[in-house]
Amino acid sequence: MIAIYNVLLVDDEQLDLEVLQRFMPWEQLDMTIVGAVHGGGAALNLLLEQHVDILITDIQMPIVSGLELAEQARNLLPHLKIIFISGHEDFQYAKRAISMNASSYILKPMDDQELLNTLQLIREQLKYEREQMQKEEQVDSSIPLLQNEMMYQWLRGMIEYNTLYRLYERGEIFWHGGQCCVAIIEMDDLAWKLKALSDDQRRFAIDHGFRLISDYLQDRQLGIYCKTGDDKVVIVTNAAGLNAVETMQSLVEHVRNHSNLTITVGLGSEVASLQDAPESYLQAQEALATKMFIGKCRVITLEQTAGEIVQTSLDLEQIMERMFEATANYDLVRIHDSLEQLFELVQNLKDKLSVYNFSLYVVSKTDFFLQTLNVSLYDLLSIDLKNLNVLYDFETIADIKSWLRKQLFEVSEHMHNKKKNPNRKLIDEIERYVEANLEISLQLRNVAKLFGFSPNYLGYLFKEVTEEHFSDFVTKKRMEKARELLQDPKLKIFEAAHQVGYQNLTMFSRHFKQSFGLPPVDYRKQGSGHK
Predict the structure, then answer these.
(1) Of 138, 173, 348, 518, which cross-links 522 as Cys (Cβ 3.0–4.6 Å)?
(2) Does any domain span residue 260?
(3) Are 249 and 299 a contacting pair, CB within 8 Å?
């Protein structure tokens, strides 16, 4: 996008203002005039109302001189570029202009080329300054992201504590020491609650939930926190004088009261210092893994869970990780084996409803895994939420297991085919472009340029994916469209030819006969019902 720089023109002579406005190629300079006023007072009012990049002002004006205007304007906008125009070759004026670091001092009658050269130089200066500012903003904005990622890696034991501490110290975030514990916060039932929403609405709902959580943690200064790659929030909270269970339960209630989403919190035990927080993080993971059995929209601690449930939950997570890896790698044998292991755990569930909930849990986790690969389980398999009731209609665990296996096999095959043909999406887009633009020139070099490829490479890709040459595809689509157009007896043959990109009627007739065995005239004689 072209940067537009705002220019303010100030001169007490109307004719001089009109000359400035008319005889400079402002649009070519990427500049727009936001005001052309007759005095310093009006200029200051405009400067208060909107941003200005360049001020071009006459020096000698009544009431507020150009020099006085420039001084006040520079106080408002320190990076403002100033060009003075004067009818007097006065050294004192020039000296003042130099002291104000003005971009230029131009004498009347004004030399258009001198002003143009000055404006071109200013444009390059402004462009450079904006680029530098953007780089600085990117660096500033990247520090929190880096802190987030480093904290997550540290909790998982992937980097040393000292590395994390130096990064937080640079960002002027300090830990006050003392006992602490780790909580992992997970949103409940995202797959079910947000399925009916569009992608934008879904993202907004999730972002709203994260803002509720982060604002709550930040406003109460509960500790340092980060977002994980699987859409959870992890907080290391200072435990001194704090009942962590009650604090996290208050967060659970806060989210429930202010959104349609709910959260579950896995809470680790207190440890002696921040350096020991990874130990508490592992405990929080174990506690959260029992949500399937303990329940959601609550705080879960290891003290509340039986050892057998913890072990079952950990086994469940590990088996599903292996199953997802097998699904991504088109390893159907491992998918089968993983499902067998999963349903060995199901044997311990006592009632049909528990088995049903367990199966929904597996489907939900599968969908979440696929979303990290930009794939939707429901869209892929054309599954509607209400159709998941089929799980409850199955009479045996074996039936449910068989259904899940079939779904995972289909997902895995789809992903495998997508990997084999990663350029299919590009070719689909090119095919759609061709079908929508049959009336124009569709030579390979033109289409390749439009999509940013060399003709040779695009031709190679097209043939590899579709097993036909690009030119053959274009001809095929043009002939299909032409046959459709010729169904209309009011349309002349040359008009149909023009509508599908042929200016040469002989060439059109030859291609039509090659495609359908008849020239267009004979095809039309046989009637619109001929196929």
Answers:
(1) 518
(2) yes
(3) yes
- Domain stop point among 249, 283, 304: 304
Q: How far is CA 198 from the centre of its chain?
A: 15
Sequence-distant (≥ 6) Cβ neighbours of residue 427 within 8 angstroms: 461, 462, 465, 466
- Distance, in Å, from the CA atom of 520 to the CA atom of 225, rounded to the nearest integer, reads 72
467 and 402 assigned to the same domain: no
Q: Is the domain of 387 the same as that of 494? A: no
Q: Are residues 108 and 14 in the same domain?
A: yes
The answer as to whether 468 is a domain residue is yes
Residue 169 lies in a domain: no
Same domain, yes or no: 429 and 384: no
Q: 121 and 14, same structural domain?
A: yes
- Distance of alpha carbon 222 from alpha carbon 302, whole angstroms: 21
Q: What DSSP element (H or E) covers 41?
A: helix 40-49
Q: Can you spell out the DSSP letters for 430-461?
A: HHHHHHH-TTS---HHHHHHHTT--HHHHHHH
**Taking the chain (531 residues) in consecutive chunks of 10 residues, what is each chunk's mean pLDDT?**
81 87 89 92 90 90 87 88 79 69 81 87 88 66 61 81 67 62 88 68 82 88 80 81 86 90 91 88 87 80 70 76 87 90 72 68 76 64 53 69 83 76 79 91 88 81 86 93 89 91 89 90 71 42
How far is residue 75's CA from residue 232's CA, in Å, rounded to a whole number? 46
Asked whether 302 and 296 are in contact (CB, 8 A), the reply is no
62 prior amide bond cis, ω within 30:
no
- What span, in angstroms and rounded, lies between the C-alpha atoms of 358 and 346? 8
Instruction: Identify the domain containing residue 61 by its residue range.
Output: 5-130
Q: Is residue 95 in some structural domain?
A: yes
Count up the domains in the chain and report the number: 4
Last residue of a domain, one of 130, 163, 193: 130
Nearest to 310 by CA among 324, 328, 289, 292: 289
